[in-house]
Amino acid sequence: MGDPLRFRADEPHDEPAVTLDAFLGQSNATAVRIESGEDARALLPHLDRIALVEVSFPKFRDGRGYSSARILREAGYAGELRAQGDVLVDQIPLMRRCGFDSFAPEAPVDEAVLAAALARYDHHYQRAADPAVPVWKLRHG
Amino acid sequence: MYKYDEYDHSIVAARVEEFRDQVNRRLAGQITEDQFKPLRLMNGLYLQLHAYMLRVAVPYGTLDSRQMHMLAHIARKYDRGYGHFTTRQNIQYNWIKLADAPDILADLATVEMHAIQTSGNCIRNISSDQYAGAAADELTDPRPWAELLRQWSSFHPEFSYLPRKFKIAVIAADEDRAAMRLHDIGLQVVERGGQHGVAVYVGGGMGRTPMVAPLIKDFVPFEDFLSYMEACLRVYNRYGRRDNIYKARIKILVHEIGADKYRDEVEAEFAEVKKLDLDPPRAEFDRIAAYFAPPPYETGLSDAIDRGDPDFAVWLDQNVAAHKAPGYAIVNISLKPVGGIPGDASADQIDVMADLARDYSFDELRVTHAQNIVLPHVRKADLPAIWQKLADAGLAEANLDLISDIIACPGLDYCSLANARSIPVAQKIAQRFSDLGRQRELGELKLKISGCINACGHHHAGHIGILGVDRKGTENYQLLLGGSGAEDVSLGTITGPGFSEDGIVDAVEKATDVYLRERAEGERFLDTYRRVGMAPFKEAIYG
After folding, report:
1. With an 8 Å Cβ cutoff, is B287 touching chain A?
2. Is a pLDDT exceeding 60 seen at residue B247?
3. Which InterPro entries match (chain A) (predicted)?
4. On chain B, which terminus has fewer CB atoms closer than 10 Å, C or N?
5. CA separation for the pair A21, A25 (Å, rounded)
């Protein structure tokens, strides 16, 4: 697997991500991986020392990671948030809206297709974890 | 009705281009069918037994004549000259070529229509009361709430890969014409302290484990509406089961953890998401509601109707409902002719209905969950002319809510999931009871047929329900009695061993004989069943 696709300006974090259990049991880890069934809120007391959260997508159909990402961003987490696993190119725009800014798909992603997908929608109906202003806000200020 | 602004147009146009790109990648072999499947499903494109089926969204079942004409155009140009109106108030086309699908979506976009989220494990088309805005018994028009949900749920980034599909219905009358409590979320607009809000029911549904949704919150004001929906969905997305497709609907989650625990989880989540400024301002509600303002009714109209033609009089009594405006009525157009396929209409018939809407109904039509069409606002004085035009087009069947007004899924004639055919059973029952006088003697009798346990034909909610199963390689039909999808919601009970295709028709007839024998004054079939219980029916059917 190559380097993750990153939408961040900072340098990639080089510490390997540890499991949630391992993370909660040790005080110095700065990178953690959460499985799709694990509760992202368990990380909230520790956000100030985390530089990377990797969220696992064991199957593209398993959408729990989208909620995990939003929960972390809503709590103010500003570090790298990576989607890893069965991540399809057509899902990345939705994941970006949920706050993911780093991607490690198991199968390679066609960068031209991805660029077109990310540029496709000028407007979004609902507020999410990205800076997009929802359409109702554009309508009414 | 709602009109797109620049933002709506921009989003739907982007979707057309996105799907065109996805189809092109598939046709070029850049993605496999396995990878393409979730993409096409998110856009209502199914691979069925013989061809692709495309399901087009009709948000809350409301259409204007221009849109209805477009549906006819698509039937002619891309299908075999007809379309099938569904229990989700949508329309589907059964003979679509994959390469045509992007052009169909582009055609639809010209009339502010799309196929967004008509399938897939996401929030589906929002359904509503087909009499919205016209019913005498409604508190308000529920459709602004439905349109708010349509926008909020379209391409919702967090809820596009839910454990399973998710269906929401909104009503605003005590009489439930939308099977509200048999949805994943059912909403009823209610009033409290002079303000409108919604009562929230969560965890209803049919399928192999039918459930009536419990009340989760008795009043959510507009100011919290979408935040509360967000919380309801987030709890489901996080905790809904993903280990077993048959246990993945929200009804299983609510049932397994209990309504109280689910409510606690939603309240806790709501406290978080309410901080996020997810709720549009009142001005947005007002903007949308203005599109649903009452049409400019004429005043001083007479309520008199010339009942001279006896066939017209029968249709009038059966298919025309009371309207809230004096001198107006609601016309139901039955898509259930004897021997026909429930919900099917030819392109020519679709055009006729569109023209009638334009000429007589303030340019509005509705699709009903019972697979019929409604002209919501017609002058009573125009009823004879409308009836004549419907009769000329083969659309004047006077059987609304009678035994031949059958809901049926496509069944094994089309569907790759089905175990048995539904359409031939519907046709045989309609033929057995083809005498309209006999049907009217039986009165309101909602008969619903599903060709498999997934219950797309709503058999659990039929006064009489029929479930097709596969029994050692032959089609077998189970009979259920006592279901209802209305405000007196209940789930049907299986009578006993199943029947052959002809045997089920006989069994239905025997059940109706018991009703005629046992009924008390003013009782419908359902009322008699509820009073006398299963025993006399069982005895007649199996005795």
Report:
1. yes
2. yes
3. UCP030820
4. C
5. 6
Which chain B residue has its CA at the smallest distance from A128's CA? B157
% of chain A exceeding 70 in pLDDT: 99
| Among A54-68, B35-49, B326-340, the least confident range | B35-49
Please count the residues of chain A: 141
Q: Which CATH number fits domain A5-140: 1.10.10, 3.40.50, 3.30.230, 1.10.3470?
A: 3.40.50
| pLDDT score of A1 | 52
Beta-carbon contacts below 8 Å between A and B: 107
pLDDT tens digits along B397-431: 999 999 999 999 989 988 888 999 999 999 999 99
Residue B251 clears pLDDT 60, i.e. is over it: yes
Q: How many Å apart are CA B215 and CA B223, to the nearest integer? A: 20
Cβ separation B281–A63 shorter than 8 A: no
pLDDT score for B486: 96
Nearest-by-Cβ selection for A63 from B25, B154, B237? B237
Which residues 16-75 of A are in CB contact (within 8 Å) with B? 60-64, 66-67, 70-71, 74
**Are residues B221 and B255 both part of a single domain?**
yes
**Which one of A67, A91, A93 has the shortest CB-CB distance to B238?**
A67
Residues B159, A61: C-beta atoms closer than 8 Å: no
- Answer whether A86 touches B (CB < 8 Å): no
| Residue B128, domain member (yes or no) | no
Span B378-390, mean pLDDT? Answer: 98
| pLDDT, tens digit (0-9, with 9 covering 90-100), for B489-538 | 999 999 999 999 999 999 999 999 999 999 999 999 999 999 999 999 99
Average of per-residue pLDDT across B440-452? 97
b/e code B312-332 from CB counts within 10 Å (16+ = b): bebbbebbbbebbbebbbbbb
Structure tokens at B79: 């299908």
Integer Cα distance of B323 and B327 in angstroms: 8
Q: What is the CA radius of gyration of chain A?
A: 15
| Chain B residues with beta carbon closer than 8 angstroms to that of A120 | 14, 17-18
**Which pLDDT belongs to residue B336?**
96
Number of domains in chain B: 4
Whether B281 maps to a domain, the answer reads yes
Q: What are phi and psi of B62, to 5 degrees?
A: -100, 135
Query: Looking at the partner chain, which of B14, B25, B158 has a beta carbon nearest the beta carbon of A67?
Result: B158
pLDDT value for B489: 96
- CA nearest neighbour of B146 among B232, B233, B60, B56: B60
Domain assignments of chain A as residue spans, ordered by start: 5-140
Check if B35 contacts A (Cβ < 8 Å).
yes
C-alpha B64/C-alpha B166 separation (Å) is 26
Distance from CA of A15 to the nearest CA of B (A): 28
Is residue B123 situated within a structural domain? no
Q: For residue B30, what is the nearest residue in chain A, using CA coordinates?
A: A110
The domain that contains B87 carries what CATH number? Answer: 3.90.480.20
Instruction: Say how far apart CA B257 and CA B81 lie, in whole Å.
Output: 48
pLDDT of residue A83: 98
User: Same domain for B149 and B265?
Assistant: yes
Kindly state whether residues B338 and B204 are assigned to the same domain: no
Residue span of the structural domain in which B437 resides: 407-542
Judge if B285 and B353 occupy the same domain. no
For B283-294, what is each residue's pLDDT tens digit?
999 999 999 999
pLDDT at A47: 96
Report the CATH number at residue B386.
Answer: 3.30.70.3340
Helix axes B347-360, B383-392, angle to 10 degrees: 170
E strand or H helix at B285: helix B282-291
